[in-house]
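Tokens in:
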């Protein structure tokens, strides 16, 4: 089985480092990506993704990312399941494993 994603987009928010109760560094990176097709009015729609960054990747991105910088991210998806009012809900978390700064 394969659990992998690749995104190429632009930085929309500078990641802010936080420390977990276990002492690990974590940050969230907001990336905007163009869709590969045009709408009926001829414009490209954009999708915005929150990417979770851990440890060294988090620190590197916090130090190097600037608004609107092009960036490529390779990573994995993680299913977050929670229950509310007898219903189960699933959220997908995108976790970066490799980040490349495109210049």
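Residues out:
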């Amino acid at each position: 089985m394969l659990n992998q994603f690749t995104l190429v987009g632009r930085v929309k928010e500078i990641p802010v480092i936080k420390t977990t109760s276990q002492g690990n560094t974590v940050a969230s990176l907001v990336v905007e990506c163009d869709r590969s097709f045009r709408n009926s009015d001829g414009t490209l729609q954009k999708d915005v993704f929150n990417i979770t960054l851990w440890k060294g990747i988090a620190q590197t991105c916090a130090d190097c990312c600037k608004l609107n910088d092009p960036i490529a991210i390779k990573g994995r998806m993680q299913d977050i399941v929670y229950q509310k009012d007898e219903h189960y809900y699933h959220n997908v978390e995108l976790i970066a494993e490799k980040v490349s700064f495109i210049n």
